[in-house]
Amino acid sequence: MSTQTTRPQLSYLADQMNELKQKGTHFKLRVLEDAQAPECTVDGKHVINLASNNYLGLTTHPKLREAAVAAIKKFGVGSGAVRTVSGTMTIHMELEEKIARFKNTEACVVFQSGFAANAGTVSAILGKDDFIISDELNHASIIDGARLSRAKIKVFRHKDTAHAEELLKEVAGEPGHKLIITDGVFSMDGDIGPLPALCDLAEKYGAIMMVDDAHSSGVLGRNGRGTIDHHKVHGRVDVQVGTLSKAIGALGGYVCGSKDLIDFLYHRARPFLFSTSHPPSVAATCIAAFDVLEQEPERMDQLWANTRFFKKELGLLGFNIGGISTPASETPITPIVIGEGRLTMEFSRELFNEGVFVPGIAFPTVAEGKARLRTIMTATHTQDQLTKALEVLKKVGTRMGIIK
Question: Strands (DSSP E) along 124-200, which ranges?
Answer without folding.
Answer: 131-135, 152-156, 178-183
